[in-house]
Design brief:
By secondary structure, the protein is of the alpha/beta class. Helices cover about 50% and strands about 30% of the residues. Strands 1-2-3-4-5-6 form a 6-stranded mixed β-sheet, with helices on both faces.
């Protein structure tokens, strides 16, 4: 009987040791997954920064072609009033108009909706622009057709890549929404 009990205890110790090793491996795997997720997030941010850097120098030309004179282009505008805040990737400014541009590596409908909400708050959170027409634009390396149609339907300019240059891909009869 002692041998059977000893064998059972030996098996239980092996199972316990095996469980500890499995737990360690799971913790290592979780850590690697978290590191990979963080790396992917940083890559997505870098791609968004890349889009901003592509759009910023082209903004003057793009909006002049739309009949909007450009005097200033600002990056990464942030405003906070109380609990409410906004961040704008690029802000194109002249004496009468501002165009707030959202830049993404891959533009989705949620991104468009967030930008529309941002545009609705802009004059309230940036009151120095209260006397200007507020227009909106979205830019992306990848803009699926359904997202482009949705953004266009919401009155936003759509900045896309064509070959080695950028263009506003709205139809000629496009009338932007004014906030």
């Amino acid at each position: 009987m002692n041998t059977a009990a000893e064998e059972i205890w030996a098996i239980l110790r092996e199972v316990a040791q095996s469980q500890k090793e499995t737990d360690l491996k799971m913790k290592e795997t979780d850590k690697k997954i978290k590191e990979m997720t963080a790396s992917i997030g940083r890559l997505g941010n870098k791609l968004g920064d890349f889009v901003e850097e592509m759009v910023r120098p082209a903004a003057v030309r793009l909006f002049r072609e739309q009949g909007i004179e450009v005097h200033e282009v600002h990056r990464n505008i942030e405003a906070q009033r109380g609990a409410e805040g906004i961040e704008i990737d690029l802000l194109v400014v002249n004496d009468t108009d501002i165009v707030a541009i959202e830049c993404k590596s891959t533009l989705g409908i949620d991104d468009v909706n967030e930008h529309l909400a941002r545009l609705g708050k802009l004059k309230r959170l940036l009151p120095s622009y209260h006397d200007k027409r507020v227009l909106g634009a979205v830019a992306g390396m990848v803009i699926p057709d359904n997202v482009a149609r949705y953004a266009f339907g919401q009155g936003l300019y759509i900045i896309t890549q064509s070959g080695d240059h950028l263009l506003i891909s709205n139809p000629a009869d496009f009338r932007p929404r004014v906030w």
